[in-house]
UniProtKB/TrEMBL annotation, chains A, B:
<dbReference type="InterPro" id="IPR038987">
    <property type="entry name" value="MoeA-like"/>
</dbReference>
<comment type="similarity">
    <text>Belongs to the MoeA family.</text>
</comment>
<dbReference type="InterPro" id="IPR036688">
    <property type="entry name" value="MoeA_C_domain_IV_sf"/>
</dbReference>
<dbReference type="InterPro" id="IPR036135">
    <property type="entry name" value="MoeA_linker/N_sf"/>
</dbReference>
<dbReference type="Pfam" id="PF00994">
    <property type="entry name" value="MoCF_biosynth"/>
</dbReference>
<dbReference type="GO" id="GO:0005829">
    <property type="term" value="C:cytosol"/>
</dbReference>
<dbReference type="Pfam" id="PF03453">
    <property type="entry name" value="MoeA_N"/>
</dbReference>
<keyword id="KW-0501">Molybdenum cofactor biosynthesis</keyword>
<comment type="function">
    <text>Catalyzes the insertion of molybdate into adenylated molybdopterin with the concomitant release of AMP.</text>
</comment>
<dbReference type="InterPro" id="IPR001453">
    <property type="entry name" value="MoaB/Mog_dom"/>
</dbReference>
<dbReference type="GO" id="GO:0061599">
    <property type="term" value="F:molybdopterin molybdotransferase activity"/>
</dbReference>
<dbReference type="InterPro" id="IPR005110">
    <property type="entry name" value="MoeA_linker/N"/>
</dbReference>
<protein>
    <recommendedName>
        <fullName>Molybdopterin molybdenumtransferase</fullName>
        <ecNumber>2.10.1.1</ecNumber>
    </recommendedName>
</protein>
<keyword id="KW-0479">Metal-binding</keyword>
<dbReference type="InterPro" id="IPR036425">
    <property type="entry name" value="MoaB/Mog-like_dom_sf"/>
</dbReference>
<feature type="domain" description="MoaB/Mog">
    <location>
        <begin position="181"/>
        <end position="319"/>
    </location>
</feature>
<comment type="pathway">
    <text>Cofactor biosynthesis; molybdopterin biosynthesis.</text>
</comment>
């Protein structure tokens, strides 16, 4: 039995990273991983920009101005946002009426807000002294020319989309999504939508997994059921492995007589990476390498499968996409109650709020799945350790 | 100037809530809002289910068993997961070999894990005493018959998808997405992809907003630019207002000579909800009701626009979809440095980790947008209040 961290390492050691690139519109770029460093070809702003509605002035000409002794300047023109930049304007004793976002002509070096003037049209009285640079948006104040604005493998969001737009960029190269196949094994499984049969259950794992992986930006290239049949499991894995970056199975990994996944991998001469991890639920989780693809084999129990998935999928995705930000969000918080010690490391459904985490008064059997909806995280409880109210623990949040 | 909370209330007071329903596959349901209470038509499990690989026994027949004095039971058959439920089996002195997930026949009331037996095939030696109910998944242990499994207006996630699948459900009714129109106003704006012109800037707001709203599940029904032209702004609003649930504009809300949005609303005889809110940046944010639709008018400055959007869009979405969970995530955390007092309530870009928030050593001018990428939240700094290192503040996380 190995540790979660060691198991993750073993996967990363053999997992190929995504090389496939695609070009998308910046409007489709949020949530994607950029594949190149991007440098600013346009400074933002690319001209000195008025930060206020008011008057562009030479700041030193406002020296000594106050409401009793205003300084009067001649207004030579009005510049609106969108107007073209103007050449040097002979300035002594003059001001320019200017609106937010408009280009400030030389030699003006400040904008006095209109509320501090008499709003004069041909000449303006200035009631305050201001210093050079006031409400004066310097060239490159936000983004300077050639500044690296996006880094290779950066996760894009709506603000990065805006930043790219401000550069005039409309398309961007991003990593293609991870291609995932899901195989739910178990002779007891029937597909939702079909009639219920004695001894059978509607499969839920296929749906939970597919939903989560899709929502995370992954591409489900196949999702199938099969019964506990060595030949069938083996055939599907062989047929489908080349279509995917990651093949996830559920069920058939424990020690029951029809837990065939380990046999299939052996028969296919796959390289076993690990089987049985120090975690509860989902101890029998397994991973192997076959045809250069990682096969991640989760427990069949729905709660165990989703915990296995959270513990392994996000770290696989983050590594595959070269983007640590894709990892599961975690946080160090305080327990509001004692935890029963556990022989194995345990992931406990729980509810965290403002730095405090509670188990809630719900059933914590691994055979119960529905009440995970009342929780927002998993407590990572170390093995064989007494943890009491007030102690700090790590929690991982349910994602999607 | 009104408070943020009052401004939100004024919007909610007039905003129609979403009534439009659509049916989607459960695989497309994550992130959507359910429109009905859903009750379990199938108990989970719907038969007593073995929780372990082992032997189904009558627990009291294991009384006194230990490794030195095992109790021997006759094995009458083997039941696998997926096998049909069996009628009552005459039980005295017998056991049934059983695998995880298989239906446990009556009168057996416990499953002893195989590791505590000699794995016998025709007869089995039991090395431990177990109690009734051990590894015995009762009918309805996870979900009982007629249990409410999903509530009306519940936000669905990948686990709810699995829970629906376990009921045999393949489709679900959800609220249609909010339909949003975006109009970026400003004569200085040109579209990314076109050549840069003196005094003009590439618009970024349209893209930041569209990206965020799309990623939040909203539907962008139009996105357009227009110059600071009363007629054009007015024409677009009139033409498009009926296509949307919410119309968002950027720019033209302040006190400049060409800040025409307030005039347009007046001219159209829209009902002003508010103009100028106690918040910085984005003080001149405005909202009105026109043709029974809410128009939300944000500042044109990119940082102010995105702060306005975070402060108002999420609360609008949550109210419109009847789902408070859609609101912006917030948290009470401790300051790691003093805050300069501010005349207005201020939203400060910041970085929060494990309960502590810092301003980072970055420029906090509202004319700077790019460095918001180095932050993960906004500190909500109350007006005119001295806040020092160690004090608690509310932060709101950037979402998408």
């Amino acid at each position: 039995m190995i540790e979660v961290e060691k198991a993750r390492e073993k996967i990363q050691h053999v997992l190929a990273q995504q090389k496939e690139v695609e070009t998308v519109s910046i409007l489709e770029a949020a949530g994607r991983v950029c594949t190149e460093d991007i440098y600013a070809k346009v400074a933002v702003p690319h001209f000195p920009r008025a930060g206020m509605d008011g008057y562009a002035i030479v700041a030193k000409e406002s020296q000594g101005a106050n409401p009793q002794e205003p300084i009067c300047l001649k207004v030579t023109e009005t510049i609106f946002a969108g107007d073209a930049e103007q050449a040097f304007i002979k300035a002594h004793g003059t001001a320019v009426r200017i609106m937010t976002g408009a280009p400030i002509p030389k030699p003006y070096d400040a904008v006095i807000k209109q509320e501090w003037t008499d709003y004069g049209e041909t000449q303006v009285n200035i009631y305050r002294e201001i210093t050079s640079g006031r409400n004066y948006g310097e060239v490159g104040e936000d983004v300077y020319l050639n500044q690296k604005i996006i880094s290779k493998y950066q996760l894009l969001n709506s603000r990065t989309v805006g930043i790219l737009a401000a550069q005039g960029i409309t398309e961007i190269k991003v990593l293609a999504p991870i291609k995932v196949g899901i195989l739910a094994t178990g002779s007891e499984l029937i597909s939702p939508g079909s009639p219920l049969v004695s001894g059978k259950i509607y499969d839920s794992n296929l749906y939970t997994l597919a939903s989560l992986i899709q929502t995370s930006g992954g591409k489900i290239v196949f999702k199938e059921y099969c019964s506990d049949d060595i030949g069938e499991i083996s055939r599907i894995i062989q047929e489908k492995v080349n279509e995917v970056d990651l093949l996830i199975t559920t069920g058939g990994v424990s020690v029951g007589e029809k837990d065939y996944i380990p046999h299939v991998i052996q028969q296919l001469e796959g390289e076993l990476l690990f089987h049985f991890v120090n975690m509860k639920p989902g101890t029998p989780v397994m991973a192997s390498l076959y045809q250069n693809k990682v096969l991640l084999n989760l427990s069949g129990n729905p709660f165990a499968a989703v915990v296995n998935l959270h513990v392994f999928y996000w770290s696989i995705l983050a590594y595959f996409m070269n983007c640590p930000e894709l990892n599961l969000e975690k946080r160090t918080v305080q327990l509001t109650e004692d935890l029963k010690p556990s022989t194995l490391r345990r992931f406990i459904r729980a509810y965290e709020e403002n730095g405090f985490v509670s188990l809630k008064s719900i059933v914590h059997y691994s055979s119960v799945f529905h009440n995970t909806l009342e929780t927002n995280c998993l407590i990572d409880q170390p093995a064989k350790k007494q943890l009491s109210k007030g102690d700090y623990v790590t929690v991982y949040y349910w994602k999607f």
